């Protein structure tokens, strides 16, 4: 997937400025696709040149004007073509998993250092799960009141929640196994 597709989806959900898009990436889209502010602005300029989005200048009192982007017919057609393409399973590259396997060839000090790494990695996933759950409470409290687009956003979020819980279960198993090697 290209960043362009994530931006098109976000702008179809709600037109907005580059800054607003960056905030969406921080809050929700970033659950499955990350981008820096600079990347978003650079891609928006290219998408505007390609005719996929248009920008409307919005005046602001006491602040510079902002550009509010929306998707054009050409942008929608591009997204439609991409949506209909088959999805290939992602190739997984997991450095921590290789380190865990390699722990069999390290000494006790090396395994102790790996335990610290796994605990830190686990803490990051706990924080991510907490953010996802907070977002779910904030955005999807009343499931009966959400539209089709929001239901699809929610199912993606639920996938992220399930993934984080699975990773945490696995990391707990890893920690138990690593700690059991010292016995």
From TrEMBL:
* Transcription regulator PadR C-terminal domain ranges (all copies): 92-178
What superkingdom does the record give? Bacteria
Residue span(s) of domain Transcription regulator PadR N-terminal: 7-80
Q: What is this protein identified as?
A: PadR family transcriptional regulator
- Can you name the source organism? Micromonospora endolithica
């Amino acid at each position: 997937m290209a960043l362009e597709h994530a931006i098109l989806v976000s702008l179809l959900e709600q037109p907005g400025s580059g800054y607003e898009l960056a905030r969406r990436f921080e809050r929700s889209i970033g659950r499955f696709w990350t981008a820096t502010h600079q990347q978003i602005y650079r891609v928006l300029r290219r998408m505007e040149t390609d005719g996929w989005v248009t920008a409307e200048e919005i005046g602001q009192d006491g602040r510079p004007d902002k550009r509010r982007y929306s998707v054009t017919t050409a942008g929608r057609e591009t997204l439609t073509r991409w949506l209909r393409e088959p999805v290939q399973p992602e190739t997984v590259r997991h450095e921590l998993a290789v380190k865990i396997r390699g722990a069999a060839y390290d000494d006790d000090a090396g395994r102790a250092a790996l335990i610290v790494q796994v605990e830190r990695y686990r803490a990051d996933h706990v924080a991510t799960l907490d953010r996802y759950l907070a977002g779910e409470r904030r955005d999807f409290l009343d499931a009966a009141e959400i539209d089709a687009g929001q239901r699809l956003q929610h199912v993606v979020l639920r996938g992220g929640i399930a993934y984080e819980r699975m990773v945490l279960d696995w990391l707990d198993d890893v920690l138990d196994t690593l700690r059991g090697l010292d016995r």
